[in-house]
Every structure is written in C-alpha cells, then in structure tokens.
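Review session, final week

We close the course with one last complete record, chosen because it touches almost every idea we covered. It is Phosphonate C-P lyase system protein PhnL, a protein from Gracilibacillus thailandensis with 240 residues. Go through it on your own first, then we will talk.
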Amino acid sequence: MTMLEVNGLGKAFTIHHLNKTILAVDEIQFSVHAGEFLGIIGKSGSGKSTILKSIYRTYLSDAGQIIYDSKQFGKIDLIQASEREIIFLRKNEIGYVSQFLNVMPRTTCRELVQNALLEMGETKETARIETEKALSYFEMDEGLWDSYPNTFSGGEKLRLNIAMATVKKPRLLLLDEPTASLDQQSKRKVREMIEKLKQQGTTLVGIFHDIEFMEGLCDKVFDMKSNEMSVVLEGVPHES
C-alpha cells in the first residue's frame, strides 16, 4: 500500500526587498509504501528540508500533489487539505522532528510530552506513564523533567523533540536532521527507536547528513541531484 505519493512538487520563495524569486524545489516525484523508510540525500541548500516542510504543510507548495493515505480521511492531498484537516493529522497521524525545538513558553519538559499524548485522546495516567518511559529511554536527566526547555542544551532539546514526536507512534514520521547535535550514544537510541517504529508499521521520510547512520535503515533513497529514487538492496542503492 502506498502511504505517501509526491507528484510534481514545486516550491519557490520570493525575496520581496530584492524583487527576486528563488526556486527551492521543482518537479519532485517519489512514493513511499506503508512501513518503508525513504532517505533524502543532497547537498546543503538543495531543498531537502523544503520537501519535508511541504509534506507537513509548514510550507504551502506552489505546484504538484502530496497524496497521503490517512486513517481518518482516506487519501488526501496535503496541499489542498483544509487547516482543520492538517491540524488533525499533525495531532494524530503525522509527526515531525527537526533540529530545532519550538515549544510553548512556560511548559515543562514533562508537560510537553504528556500534552502530545493527551491531544490524541489518551488518559492522563497513560500519558504520564508513556511520558516517563520516553524521557527515560532518551536519557533525559530526571531532574530536567519539570524544568523549562529554554534552559536545556542543544542535545537535550533535540532529544526532547524526538521524544515528543515518537511517543505518539505516528503513522507517518518526518525526520529533518534529528541527530545533528547528538552524541554517539544518543544517536544509537534514535536509531533503535526508528527501527522499533518501522517494526510497528510507521512510515518514515528522513534527512541525515550522517550516511553511516542511514545505512541499513533506508528502504529507498531519493537523490536531490538526480531527482531520482532508488531502492536499497543489501546496503547499495539500485534504480527503481
């Protein structure tokens, strides 16, 4: 079953004070089956993050379709979907992890993870138990659980970001350089979590500059330079 299909995706940005338009991505095309992991590779500035943000609808694309096979709405074009539909999907089906933590002020680490579960309809007790499991798993110091994240280091913020997204066990998870500022032990934890989510059926699309991290994880690779997708067989990409 195809979980995500991107057809002819295009996105440009206008720099108004220079009266200039920059094309970020053009005619992007790929598909991901349920439970697969697609890795997107390419040099900095090639538009990798733009693709993920377009899928999550942080950016509204200028052209093409992004067809997602949702549990709630069936097949839906994320470009044409209403704001209400997008908010529902973000809360219940689609997760996003970036290098940066952007959260509500005066909300503790514990509350942020619990709220991610509560908005899905989980009970307070279930949210409490699963939150503590997630924070422990990603080795967040227990002394930080009731602290505000603006005091955290970059690595701590990133681990919290990952915990918030993965605790929900989303149907589709978008990963934008989620291991950028992590040490090797934390990277292993993230890899183990990704493998666990895959086993549970989560579909993933991710960007990693750490090629070694991606090895053995990805089922497919999309190359921004060639604008082509390949299937990974025994660690080596082959054209699909």
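Two points worth writing down before the exam:
The mean pLDDT is 90.
The longest helix spans residues 184-199.
Good luck, everyone.
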